[in-house]
Amino acid sequence: MEDAVLSRYAIAFRDSAVAVAVIDSASRNLLYSNDAFLRFFKSLQVVAGGNVFADVAALSEALAVASAGGTMVAHDCLHTNARYEFSPLLQAGAPAAWLQCMVTPLAGPLLGLAGQASSDAPAAVLLNEGYRRILDDFPHNVWLCTVKGELFWTNRTSNLFTYGQPEFHDADNTRYIAKIHPDDLTGAGVALAKAMSLGRMDAPHRYRLRDHAGVYHWFQFSMAPVRDGLGATLYWVGTSVNIQAFHHAEMGANARIEQLRQRSMAHEQRALEAQRLQAQQHKMELVSHLAGGVAHDLNNLLHVMGINIELMQAQPQQQALLPYLRVLDGCLKKAGRLSTQLAGFSGRLPQNAVALEPQALVDDIQELLAKAVGAEVSFRLQIEPGLQPLFADKSYLENALINLAINARDAMDGRGSMVLRVAPHSRPDQNGHLAEYVMFEVEDSGAGMAPELQARVFDPFFSTKGSGKGSGLGLTMVKTFVENSGGHVGIESTPGVGTRVAMYLPVSLVPVENAKEANAAIVLGVGRILLVEDDDSVREAMNRILNQLGYDTIPSFSSDHAVTLLQGGMKPDLIISDIRMPGRLNVHDLIATVEAGSRTPIIFATGYSADVVIREGLVNDRYPVLFKPFSAAEISARIQIALGNHAQDADAEVPATTPLAG
């Protein structure tokens, strides 16, 4: 029945120019109002600062009389400059709780709430007459609320956005709450309460508001108090500005800023990584120079000791010392491995690559590998038959296998199982041709590694071991050796299962030479040798061994001295010279002097590794190089070959028929 009554009113008065409303006599709230009434009512709200039927005493009293008496009551309210006619609505012959209200504006000045003509009346009248022109069409939402926070007035722009109609009255003052995004309601309420508590709003507040189509938009609201002449707050006026486009642009700008920040961070990360790699490279260069220098000096010392041990072993009267000399010889070989390992740390090229039988190599090093992993590790060998010889430096390969064994032991904390597999392997080379390799694979049952660690295990100074338990150079040396030997290295690891590291070394294209006997006979010879060596101990040791081999020696301590001797007319049968020596002249000057004169054969001897000789172009491929430490048998054989080749070349030469131009 109630809905039917309100529906009839909506149909009858919707387009009427007469302001008509239906009021609940108990709550004083509007149950129905046409657009004409709402336009007038909004004006009354602005002037009265609230619901005139509840807050203006004269109107509230007239409404009560009409409701109680069941008759029409008319009241000219000078406070609001309007005539009000309240008529009870009868339902089934009984007085109703609803009242019809018709409002007609009065002529004359608008009075204040105290009932007296106000000095502010012209401004109020102007507002009353022009609010639609000014506030209703203002491009932003404008609203009024009481000092208790009740939203009692909204402009046309706000109504169109929020409800889709130009005039709307929220009788319960609650419908707007559902329009605020749930995630923003608490913040908006706090901002409103804080402003009312302080009497001002220090900064705008952002929140999301839903439009009449159900779409949320970002808004920013500000509010300020409206005060009377004594400074008391009558109500608050607020504006809500739609900043959706600004918010979208801001989000885009923030995304761009974040993109630039990420790009900058990536650039900084790349720069830091480049600095790290540069520092690492510099560190490796320092280690290379240090290790290379130590290896050079150690090779010289080992060379002197080895020559003297050989000399003592060759003396019949020293037979009682042979057991002790064999111990010294064993220590000398271990020290030689240490020198080779130092050279490997410094990235030196293998200097004595030869064809090696894999089975014989593993047989020689099996005991060392077992000792390296320890008694609590189960160590097994798996060697497939029919392996081809490989081409590598034996000492470097042995050190690489020992390094892998030690790494496997540490990965298992000294307990577990390790397998060394040796098998043939085929894979395409860089040109797509099938190449043959010999694989040496070390597998452990340790903790394994995550992929990000596997990618770094070959980096210099990177170690998965605890502090003080590893230099981080072992696998770097392995990788350097394998690649310098023309092969490649691979790793597979599974966390909780174990790790496999494999070296793939190329098969040999030359046959395996028969190993020389340790006690091979030394061949004596005759001739004059110019010995050029700046290290006194090495020069003295070489001088003694050459004398015992039957040769006469002319010691020289530098290239400067040797060149002076040759230019002065000295004619040796052979020159044995170190490569790097202090002085104004170098070995290139020595070579030039020899090649311009008698073309005396030269044998170079050095404590440096092959890559130093090759990289710095210190010798020509026509001249043999012996790498310290070498034995008396080796130098004896080299001398015999050099003198024999020189004699053949001399016999084959044809004398010139015309003298050389001076």
What separation lies between the terminal Cα atoms?
A: 140 Å
Summarize the biggest pleated sheet.
5 strands, antiparallel
The counted number of beta strands is 22
The rough form would be described as rod-shaped
CATH topology of the domain at 358-506: Heat Shock Protein 90
Radius of gyration, whole Å: 53 Å
Structural features, described:
Helix content is 43%, strand content 22%. With 662 residues, the protein is of the alpha+beta class. Among the domains are: 1-121, PAS domain (Beta-Lactamase), CATH 3.30.450.20; 358-506, Histidine kinase-like ATPase, C-terminal domain (Heat Shock Protein 90); 528-652, Response regulator (Rossmann fold, 3-Layer(aba) Sandwich), CATH 3.40.50.2300. It has a 5-stranded antiparallel β-sheet. Strands 7-6-10-9-8 form a 5-stranded antiparallel β-sheet, sandwiched between helices. A 5-stranded mixed β-sheet has the order 12-14-15-17-16. A hairpin with a 5-residue loop joins strand 1 (19-24) and strand 2. Helix 8 (244-313) packs antiparallel against helix 9. The radius of gyration is 53 Å and the shape is rod-shaped. The N and C termini lie far apart (140 Å). The model is unreliable at 109-127, 515-519 and 654-662 (pLDDT under 50).
